[in-house]
Amino acid sequence: MKRTLLAVFACALVAAVAAPAWAQAPVPAPAPAPAPAPARPQIATTKVDGTEGVYIFRNGNHQAMFVVTKDGVIATDPVAYGRPQGGAAYVAEIKKVTDKPIKYLVYSHHHYDHIAGGKAFKDEGAKIVAHKKAKERLAVLGDPATPLPDETFEKKRNITLGGTTLELTYVGLNHSDSSLVMRLPKEKIIFVVDFLPVGSVPGRGMIDFHPLEAEGSIKRVLAMDWERLIPGHPGPGDRLGTKKDVEDQLTFLRDASEAVKVAAREGKCWEPAEKELKLPKYESWPGYQNNLQFVVRRYCGLWGRGT
User: Fold this and answer.
1) What angle do CA 83, 85, 87 make, to 5 degrees?
2) Residue 64: enclosing H or E segment and its boundaries?
3) DSSP assignments along 168-195, one per residue
């Protein structure tokens, strides 16, 4: 018995000595997990590449454009999302960039998620400009944090300040009945809010969307002379839009419209269509999973009820 145990021990010892070096090396500790990415700040201001004084102000998932000239600032949309203090935060960001006075504030349209908080600009002495329909809508609501425009227009209005011209154009019904397209001709930049998202599926903003008329608005935007689009909500990776993005959005709306028209004729509007209808061509677009239902709902209103 003792000889047997000794033999077993000897064999084990020989095997251990003969084992290759890699078999005896300690198992390395797992690599530490990468540090989490820093949280995206609630508020940020960035200068648009290739410009002298064009900036994007972002508050959460809403953003606006402001232009610094030698004689003052032209700002757009307080983007406060219904919180009046957002306007003051925007003013503070502008003052970090320049000590020039804020001369103008332009409302892109009358919806509070983009313009509530304009009082902070009014307190700075800014003249507020908007489409005439925006003033009509805001007058009914009577929000003290969102002053009525000082000046309105119907079709076109140019603001020239310090050698910079900002063109304001009403292109018709789309996301609202008061939406403006703002164009900087020198920089070939436009600022468009809500009816032209960049590379993503539109969401709850479809609630008061004018589907057929919006196609005409988008065509008019495409006919303008511009190269970069600043959207009212950041695009994927915060990139700016191109004419290809606008063309793609128009194609998306047409595809959605045709698909819902078929569903409506089959009696599937609203709930069955919202649950069943898919547009696989766009499933890689941000917002597809959560927002397609809102698109379908609006087109069901059009093709299911005629509204």
Assistant:
1) 95
2) strand 62-69
3) EEE--SSSSSS-EEEEETTTTEEEE-SS
Task: Please list, in sequence order, all residues whose beta carbon lies within 8 angstroms of the beta carbon of residue 294, skipping any fewer than 6 positions away.
Answer: 202, 203, 204, 205, 206, 207
| Interaxial angle between packed helices 243-265 and 211-222, expressed in degrees from 0 to 180 and rounded to the nearest 10 | 160
Please give the Cα distance from 206 to 191 (Å, whole number). Answer: 19
Q: Which residue has the higher pLDDT, 191 or 144?
A: 191
Classify strands 189-192 and 228-231 as parallel, antiparallel or unpaired: parallel
Structure-token pair, residue 25? 């090396």
Contact partners, residue 211, CB within 8 Å, separation at least 6: 253, 257, 298, 299, 302
CB-CB neighbours of 123 under 10 Å: 13
Residues 6+ apart with CB under 8 A from 219: 250
Give the tens place of pLDDT for each residue, 194-242.
999 999 999 998 998 999 999 999 999 999 999 999 999 999 999 999 9
At a CB cut-off of 8 Å and minimum separation 6, what does 175 contact? 109, 193, 194, 195, 205, 208, 209, 210, 214
- Distance from C-alpha of 105 to C-alpha of 119, rounded to nearest angstrom: 10
**Token reading at 294:** 């809102």
> What whole-number distance in Å separates Cα of residue 168 and Cα of residue 67?
14
